[in-house]
Amino acid sequence: MAKVKYYYDTKTLSYKKIERTKLNMLIRILLFISSSSAIALCLVLLFFTLFDSPKEKELKREINNLLVQYELLEEKISNSFTILDELQERDDNIYRVIFEADPIDASIRKAGFGGVNRYTKYEGFKHSELISDLNRKVDQLSKAIYVQSKSFDDVLKMIENKEEMLAHIPAIQPVANKNLKRMALG
């Protein structure tokens, strides 16, 4: 049972019972519900800003894993570029020198793709620069590998031509072994 409340009337100098109307009760209930809802909303917002949900934790962990994988791929690509540079150096300074061929020009080896931005489909994301950069390096690596492959094909053709040329060069001793004492006619 609800408490009965009184107020002091100064005109009659007596206590009078406070009558509660249905409108007054409805206003008080709505005021209580709205203030409780506002406090609950503030607490929920505060909770979600301070603490991550399990799904958010899982997604953040996955993002960190992907970033680590991107760094590892970048390192592998750098190592591949180093190996490719060594192959190019060997091709230019050993194989092509042996066969008296000109080395491949650096502008051909390091040629770009042209004025088209091929990586616009990766834009608009948080780590789009990382993805675009990685794809650009993979494209450059594949193009450099293609150029080096063509260079090795040329070297193989030079080897076949050199074998044919060497087959036509006489490789016998023009003087018999018993006559090797003489150095000139005489």
Describe how the helices and strands are arranged.
Blueprint: E1 6-9, E2 14-17, H1 22-50, H2 54-98, H3 106-109, H4 128-168
Antiparallel strand pairs: 1-2
Molecular structure report:
The chain folds into two domains: 45 residues; 115 residues. Helices cover 64% and strands 4% of the residues. It has a two-stranded antiparallel sheet. The protein starts with 5 loop residues before the first strand and ends in an 18-residue tail after the last helix. 1% of the residues are buried.
Question: Strand sequence of the main sheet, in spatial order?
Answer: 1-2
Which overall shape is indicated by the principal axes computed on the Cα atoms? rod-shaped
Please outline the major beta sheet.
2 strands, antiparallel
In helices, the fraction of residues equals 55-70%
Rg over alpha carbons:
44 Å
SS-based class: mainly alpha
N-to-C order of helices and strands: EEHHHH
Work out the helix count: 4
